[in-house]
Amino acid sequence: MQLHLPPLPPELQPLEKPKFLAKGTGNSHWLLITRKGELIWRQFGQAPGCNHEREAKILQLLQNRSWVPWLIRSLPSRGLLFYKTPGDHPQAEKLRPSTRQALLEILVDLWQQPCDLPGINYEDLVFSYWQETGYAAPLQPLVEQLRTLANRWPEQQQLTHHDLHPGNLLLNDQHWTLLDWEYAAPGNPWIDAVALDRWLNLSDTEKEHLIRALPDLGLDNPWQAMTNWLEGLDQLWQAARTRQQE
């Protein structure tokens, strides 16, 4: 994995060789030991649907929240530089009820944050993923199904992470940090809710807590309907990603 580190002032210059940490779907992450302490360089790559310019703006918008990484510098089209956040990727079975509740509160707080950036047009997003697959004919029924349901959602949108899973979360004792905001945008927060449910198997009480902050989709069983929708979108995204890599 090749490092492309931009010019930095002396206090942010690595004192030793940067250490490669991990590569996600599109971005690579490097540990820098500097006079300012341990920093993380998030070097941009590409994946279907990601928007790095929007990611940087949303992170800057949320710097007053304790559950986002502390951003030092944003370099358009190149990457983001953060202070290293302590913690580990969580395991669902080891979470205490209070720790689970704290994560629910963070989501509710996120969805309530004002954001004047353009929202996600999910019909266009689905079509763009299909376009990335080369308009694969076997996927057309799925594309039409996803677009039809998205067309019925309320127009009012709320700030949504769009990529919640354990690899994008850090837990340090009781403190959560949400990572990797490249898909974040005003959108349908049910996507975050069902993503969390897929991982944590939320209790009825936990679901009720989230529902109070979620829009009414006018569906008999929004949890199942949105889970099916998200699984379909994941399938389409994976097909687009595979074609992109080829």
TrEMBL record:
Q: InterPro entries from the xrefs?
A: Aminoglycoside_PTrfase (IPR002575), Kinase-like_dom_sf (IPR011009)
Please state every residue range assigned to the domain named Aminoglycoside phosphotransferase: 19-196
Cross-referenced Pfam families: APH
Protein name, per record: Phosphotransferase enzyme family protein
Which SUPFAM superfamilies has this protein been placed in?
Protein kinase-like (PK-like)
UniProtKB keywords: Transferase
- Single GO molecular function: transferase activity
Q: Which domain of life is it from?
A: Bacteria
